[in-house]
Specification:
The protein is of the alpha/beta class and 287 residues long. Helix content is 32%, strand content 20%. The chain contains 9 helices and 8 strands. Strands 1-2-4-3-5-6-7-8 form an 8-stranded mixed sheet, sandwiched between helices. The radius of gyration is 17 Å and the shape is globular.
Length: 287
């Protein structure tokens, strides 16, 4: 796609227009297809997910990626992320993109509870869609990266299903953001009785799965220090944690780089796919 068309697409996304519009405009990966829509993982209207898979696939069950979108915990719809679901599916994965309840309807930990229910549903049903229920990577962008991190590292949420989580890939995620010094975090976490227990960095331990932490160098919403601090916490426990920083990319750009016309800005799709292949190919560690 020409630079003339790519720039308006970025502007649309940065201007907080609905991602459903962005998703409608960008060309999709023909190698990724929709497997199912609106699969209910819990009774509520926002407790459904969409599934994507590769158009062509070899025999055997494929590794699974559960991708949580961002939106400050107060916005977002799964339909706006078909471009990302199909992009990852074209790389050889079964991909689930769940919705979850939002602020102000709920506060922490409700959106984490929804994420846990989605992952449990995926593990119970992945085989029906060609996925391997024991090879799951949790991923997300911004608030979605936070949600995925809490599920990957805080053992309260997934229980035994956490054993199936082989890795975590976070794009521009907030992992260590105390004190709550802004309206977004106060609205989402202000009612928590133990604020330390809301921070992914608090749960770094030797039992955690490997992490890939992707950073937009020009991020002015979620500061790159979040990823650096989480990586340091993992490394202190001997957990593999890699930080990749993309120069010239901002908070929105790191996500929009999944889209076909914008991949030249940063190899985000390639890096996530390579990480997911590597960790799901390895023997499952004892945790």
């Amino acid at each position: 796609m020409s630079r003339r068309l790519a720039l308006p697409l970025v502007a649309l996304l940065a201007g907080c227009s609905p991602l459903k519009t962005f998703n409608t405009l960008v060309p999709k990966d023909s190698g990724g297809i929709v497997l199912a829509r609106d699969e209910a993982f819990a009774p509520g209207e926002r407790q459904k997910l969409d599934l994507y898979g590769p158009r062509s696939r070899a025999a055997g069950k494929l590794p699974v990626i559960v991708f949580f979108y961002g939106g400050s915990w107060n916005s977002g719809v799964k339909e706006g992320y078909a471009f990302a679901g199909r992009a990852l599916a074209a790389q050889g994965f079964v991909v689930a993109v769940p919705d979850y309840r939002l602020v102000p309807e709920v506060r922490f930990p409700a959106f984490i509870e929804d994420g846990a229910a989605a992952v449990k549903w995926v593990r119970a049903n992945a085989a029906r869609f060609g996925g391997d229920p024991d090879r799951i990577v949790l991923a997300g962008h911004s608030a979605g990266a936070y949600n995925a991190a809490m599920l990957a590292f805080d053992p309260r949420w997934l229980g035994e299903d956490r054993l199936a989580v082989r890795g975590f890939a976070g794009l521009a995620g907030p992992y260590d953001f105390l004190p709550l010094d802004g309206p977004i975090t106060r609205a989402a976490f202000g009612g928590a009785s133990d604020l330390k227990a809301t921070q992914p960095v608090s749960f770094a331990s030797p039992e955690d799965p490997p992490a890939l932490l992707l950073v937009a160098a020009e991020d002015r919403l979620v500061y790159p220090r979040n990823s650096r601090r989480l990586a340091e916490a993992f490394q202190s426990h001997g957990v593999p944690a890699e930080v990749k920083t993309y120069p010239g990319v901002g908070h929105i750009g790191i996500m929009s780089a999944f889209a076909k016309p914008l991949r030249g800005k940063a190899p985000v799709l390639r890096d996530v796919a390579e990480f997911a292949r590597r960790v799901t190919a390895a023997q499952r560690p004892e945790r």
